[in-house]
Amino acid sequence: MIKAVRKVMNSKKGFTLVELIVVLAVLGIIAGIAIPRFGNIQEESKRKADIATGAVIGKAAELALANGETDVAVDKLVSKGYLESLPKPQYKADKDFVVTVTGGNVTVTVDNQQVYPDGKNYKKD
């Protein structure tokens, strides 16, 4: 029995070149599919982060208005303690959040695209 096992072990020493090439081809195909999807996931996460940050800014502006504040610009919300720090967009990193109050309704935009109260159409140009 032991001799039979040794004989089998000695006859198989490794993978053939064809087997290695097939494995590399399969790994290449998987990488080709996965990498573009990973990039899309990052962009979508940044977009959703901006929408969530816009909601925080919008709620802070609504609280400031309820407390009698008249200027609810983002930098004023920070200086008056409604926000801890000046938020920067992730999806459109070169732009800023802008708060607008119309008829008591608060709107937060980035690059003239609404992120609060409804950011579903917030996209890159």
TrEMBL record:
Is Transmembrane helix set as a keyword in this record? Answer: yes
Give the UniProt keywords, A-Z: Membrane, Transmembrane, Transmembrane helix
* Membrane-spanning intervals of the chain: 20-38
Matching Gene3D superfamilies, A to Z?
Glycoprotein, Type 4 Pilin
Pfam families xref list: N_methyl
This chain belongs to the protein called: Putative major pilin subunit
Q: Which organism is it from?
A: Alkalithermobacter paradoxus
**Lineage, uppermost ranks:** Bacteria, Bacillati, Bacillota, Clostridia, Peptostreptococcales
